[in-house]
Design a protein that fits this description.
single chain, 244 residues, alpha/beta, eight-stranded parallel beta sheet, 9 helices, 8 strands, 36% helix
């Protein structure tokens, strides 16, 4: 299995308050305990809003985790080509556009995403409610490769999310407690448009979510995608993140 959406909140590195909230630490050891027995052999470590644009925690985490693990980063607005290449060498494979919880300059983020894609082939990952996707079309049309977190979270924007999937976007089957939708039906519709689109993620530790990941979430994915479960649990994301 490949966990395409997990966090590390390492107390050795600064954690920044976001919207009045500061999380408890969540280490690699705690994640390993929470996922023991699942057979996870790789995944994507996501830069949370609590890390700001600090890269040291991510580089350290990827060095500790080793082969099979990649990073998704939030770039400093002043990041240079050399900074991006250095992060790519460390194992970073995507830039995160946190449009839900970050005070972000969307134009700058878009320019950075294009810059990183042209330099090293990174895709952009959007943390955004699907209801906002249509208004973001001028931005999305400029991004060469995109994934959407947590099924888009909102049933209101599902038609447009499906349109993005039809145009090549990938979608994280993660954070089920954060959504307002029929999870199985939503995944079934996404999978019908593109069987390569869905990518499993635990979203652990599930900070600020109404509920954390539970092993029964895998049963929901199986109900939605049937015999394509192995691809959703691993193959789709490994291809997307270019993990051999």
């Amino acid at each position: 299995m490949f966990d395409a959406h997990r966090y590390i909140l390492d107390p050795r590195f600064p954690l920044v308050e976001n919207q009045g909230y500061q999380p408890e630490p969540y280490t690699i050891a705690e994640y390993d305990k929470d996922t023991d027995g699942l057979g996870i052999t790789g995944g994507a470590v996501i830069s949370a809003s609590f890390h700001g644009t600090d890269q040291s925690f991510l580089v350290s985490s990827l060095d500790t985790l080793g082969h099979g693990w990649v990073g998704v980063t939030q770039l400093d607005p002043e990041a240079t080509d050399e900074d991006i290449v250095e992060l790519d060498t460390a194992g970073v494979r995507a830039i995160r556009l946190n449009l839900k919880r970050g005070a972000t300059d969307v134009q700058t983020l878009t320019a950075q995403a294009r810059q990183a894609n042209e330099l090293v082939g990174w895709h952009a990952e959007l943390y955004v409610e699907a209801a906002m996707l249509l208004s973001l079309e001028p931005i999305l049309s400029k991004l060469p490769a995109v994934s959407i977190d947590h099924l888009g979270m909102s049933s209101q924007g599902l038609p447009y999310l499906l349109d993005l999937v039809d145009r090549g976007a990938r979608v994280k089957a993660s954070g089920f407690g954060r959504t307002d939708m029929d999870i199985v039906d939503t995944m079934r519709q996404i999978h019908a448009v593109n069987p390569a689109a869905l990518m499993f993620g635990t979203d652990l530790p599930g900070t600020r979510g109404p509920r954390r990941f539970d092993e029964s979430d895998i049963d929901l994915i199986a109900e939605a995608v049937g015999g394509d479960l192995p691809a959703v649990l691993g193959g789709n994301a490994r291809a997307w993140y270019r993990v051999t």
